[in-house]
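go over this:
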Amino acid sequence: MLTLIGLLTVLTIVLLLVLRKVTPIVGLTLIPFCGAVLAGFGFDEIGAFFTTGLGSVVQVATMFIFAIIFFGVLQDAGLFNPLVRFLVKISGGNVISVAIGTAIVGMLAHLDGAGATTFLLTIPALLPLYKRLGMNPYLMMMLLATGAGILNLMPWAGPVGRAAAVFEMDPIDVWQPLIPVQAVGAVLLVVFAGLFGIREKRRIAKGGGMPVEDDSPYEPAVDTAPEDAELVRPKLLWLNFVVFLAVLTSLVTGILPSAYIFMLGLGVVLLLNYPSVTMQMERIKAHAPNALLMGAIILSAGSLLGILNGTGMLRSIAEDMVLILPDSVIPHLHLIIGVFGLPLDLLLSTDAYYFALLPIVEQIVATHDVPTTSTIYALIIGNVIGTFLSPFSPALWLGLGLAGLEIGKHLRYSFIWMWIFSLILMAFAIPIGLIP
């Protein structure tokens, strides 16, 4: 009975999130509560489960809140914009250089972990260049999405933080072993972009201009305002870069808790760029909605995990699934899910994938002594590149709107190549020991 109630709870959450009938906060709080009541647990027990679950994710939620505001303030101060403009400028009229530049720009623009910022910063700058050279804008979208996927492995970007919250780990500890995967992914994407640039150059030379099915002019569907001149601090560019580098170095070395590092970093960049208390409050208010939303989702996930673990639902599901699945499949289930992680992005939201699917897979393969970290890395690496293929990603819709593109054509152009890219990264993670 506990297994049935647990499966009903998890599947209901996944279904409602997939159909976009509820927000993650609603789905992750109300449905587990109803499941615990249905399983016969009293309010005192449920309250204890909640407290335990909440305590396991407070550090992660705190890190997300301050990280999002920290990167938002640096974005306001104009730290990343000159570099993006420079890369766009030097890639000029060479199709191959433009493709490579797009890949690099996409990764740099996603350093803050926010997909919306990535597309707002890059598409208005790149689209006129693609149009002038007759390049396919769906290539631009694929390269930006893949680059953002690689940088989505940063601990403040989402997937790593969610996985860390599920298993009560520090996101920095989860991220550090992933650095070689990110480095290889970045180099591979540059090579990938160069090869596609060569292909695009040949296509243009043969047919000239846009592909037949994309012969309409590509104008941004949304007007984007340039950076706010009152907020940009060009004279403080290098100081901001030093603070940014110091924060990243502190995160890599782990000299302080990650949440505290971002608190300190935020304090420094606010004082440095906006000495006025009024302006400091305005910058915090400007980025608070995104920061608090992510923090609230992580805290809601903590209540879900507290109830699923406290009631024994996860353990019961895993034990019964072991009885059903063939013995030959169980030790490799995390690999199987990882291989299909990118296609699953078309069916599951990020929250459903990490908060519902990941803990169940971990419980099942743990019966064959598969380390928790191996399960985490298999599912993250297999899934993360597909973040901006998913129709559940609001940032993807923003990017498509800015470029005047269609999601169906984006999927047809990008899906197979991004899946192959994802599988290559998974194959690299095996010999270096992330996925034994």
Confidence is low (pLDDT under 50) at residues 211-226. Residues 309 and 315 are 7 Å apart (CA to CA). Residues 2-429 form one domain. The chain has one domain: 2-429.
